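Hi Q.,

Before the meeting this afternoon, I wanted you to have the zinc ion prediction in hand. No need to reply - just skim if you have a minute. The sequence and ligand are here:
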Amino acid sequence: MTNPLLDTSSLPRFADIAPEHVVPAIRAVIERHRLRIDRLLDADREPDFDSIVLPLEEMEHELSRIWSPVSHLQGVLGSSEWREAFNQALPLLTEHGTELSQNLRLQQAYARVASRFDEATSPAQRSAVELALRDFHLAGVDLPDDNKARFKAVKRELAEIQARFEHNVQDASDAWQLGISDEGELEGLPAQAMARARSEAEARDRDAWLLTLDHPTYHAVMTHAENRTLRETMYHAWVTRASDEGPDPDFDNGDNIRRILALRKEAAELVGFGNYAEYSLATKMASTPAEVIRFLRELSAHSRPAAERELAELREFAGMTIEPWDAAFYLEKYKQARFSVSNQALRQYFPAHTVMKGLFDLAAKLYGVSFENEEGVDVWHEDVLYFSVKGDGGDAIGGFYADLYARSGKRTGAWIDDCVNRKCLNGHTTLPVGYLVCNFAPGDGRGVSLLGHDDVVTVFHEFGHMLHHLLTRIDYPSIAGINGVPWDAVELPSQFMENFAWNYEVLERCSSHAESGEPLPRSLFERLEDSRHAGAALAMLRQIEFALFDLRIHAEYDAETGLDVMRTLAEVRDEVSLLRHPGYNRLPHAFAHIFAGGYAAGYYSYKWAEVLAADAFEAFHEAGIFDRDTAARFRREILEIGGSRDFMEAYVAFRGRKPDIDALLRQSGIEPQ
Ligand SMILES: [Zn+2]
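Predicted structure with the ligand bound:
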């Protein structure tokens, strides 16, 4: 075996893997799997779990294990060679995935397996087969031939138009620039944003500073620029991107929105749903559009009085009416005046290695797991560490790579990904391994990287996902760890962990001052805690506005009459929003999450999972924050189960009741009524 990507006997051989290995490896493994599936389906025997499902699970595991270093390196190395290799191989994978989900004989074999379930069938086996059958159905495999062809055509056109939607947003953003020659106009902008504007101006050889419509610049101007006219100008440009109100009609997404909604409705109906919202919820924890709408309206009704108070306070503080381009700016000023929490001062207390140590201590306290830095593991950059994870009795659980610091070429943001999924098939166990990736400030002269408190929250969040991946007990990779977990529950373990980053006892162990070595003083923590709620209810309403709009347009679209999305948006804003948006505001036209990304009729998931996370955390509050029994129950009922159980049932098994919204309201400083 000469292609190192195909060597799955241990961890990826990062030192040996090169971009030119990618396409041959992916081609080879797909070809092998294709032949094997044909042979399985041609076999002259009644299909059962062991003869059909197990080999498919093995193949899924192998393909994902071979692909994972590719997609990972493409993100963290960011070289053009890796990107190109990735882009060449991705269509092969997509095509293979479609071929599998459209394979009628395979679907029928799974259906035969399901028809022979008996009392010896475990719940996990049942789930693995049922989820696979669900996904076959959602992919249109069991449609009559003419409908099947139409379904495929609709899906293909949708993919094209969604891509066009995203390109329009990107191109419209790229086309907009604002040259500034007088530094005074940029008063208040942080040094980093100033430097960015300066280098943009240099790169294009115009003006002294150049503002562009990328998110960091937009965010910096809206939050910090003293110049109100500048904020309004930037706001106007932002909310008219890719619309009929924008400068270039070529980028207008109006027609794309109409077409996307029409095609989604048609696709949903072809596979037996009333509308696309129902289709989307088929893979989620929430069961009906009405249930989601009720959930959002309940949250909104409770948050509204608090949001009104916040807005009134802000208005009083600013001494004027708060327009949409003022809200973030005055909130920031208000926070500084009221709580005087300096991010710079906080940062001195959080060296990255101390934070990680505190995080490991916390996981040890809760779940009895331990982490050990292992030297000598092959990595892709000298900063990357590998940790092996062990259980109470020293039993190996898995491991993960930590790549914490920003460097050039590395994708921005923070995320985790699986490297190896857990599996236990035919008596052989493979332990889970993951990647934890952040973009913290690189170490200073002494090699110390200091984190802001928001960075601390971020690493707790991602670590929550990692524990979900590592602590699973499920044997079948398609439903192990995060796989098979409903989309609106995936952010439960991560947002749950965030709560610990707001707890003094935890932060005390995560902090040591860069000079004095002292832990975070309680007085500073208390101010930080107070500032947590500032603007929380207004932010809640904003998210509810997006979520309700998204769900309503996908539930209400009518093939005969179409749907006026701007009218639906106006209704939602009348119902939910406290800020008045100007008539030129075209939120939908750049709302790529739902029109180009995977969040269609799923934007509510953010709030849904946040409710679960806050409610789950409250169980820890009630029993004592480090209570081992509560932690053991959370681990057993939530973290270990993957996609093997109905998630609501599992939640009730943990909490003794269904989730309610009060905990999230309290956490946001809103008194439940
Ligand atoms: Zn997350």
